[in-house]
Amino acid sequence: VQLQASGGGLVQAGGYLRVSCVVSGRTFTSYVMAWFRQAPGKEREFVAAISRVSSTTKYADSVKGRFTISRDNAKNTVYLQMNSLKPEDTAVYYCAADGSSVVTTPTYDYHYWGQGTLVTVSS
Question: What percent of the chain shows pLDDT beyond 70?
Fold first, then answer.
């Protein structure tokens, strides 16, 4: 399974950005998908996750109401729409996949990872 994240960049505070992750190698609908992020000097943290058929989503409290996770199973792609961005959202954003049927938040539950895409929010 290969995950390829893209769409990061530099944006001003209050702006928006959408990152994407294309999955290849196995049936996309076999996976719960998630986004994590890691800021410099900090541990990787959960951002959002979505179930196989988009019926369930979970968000970190820090992004709830500002970020939206979605997936397009026809395109083998998961998205993270990020609105009202803050400087503290600056991080490398990683997409991750897990073959279970349960939407979870711990990093260790996800067995496949993309390479990350950098999001920088300037103040």
Answer: 100
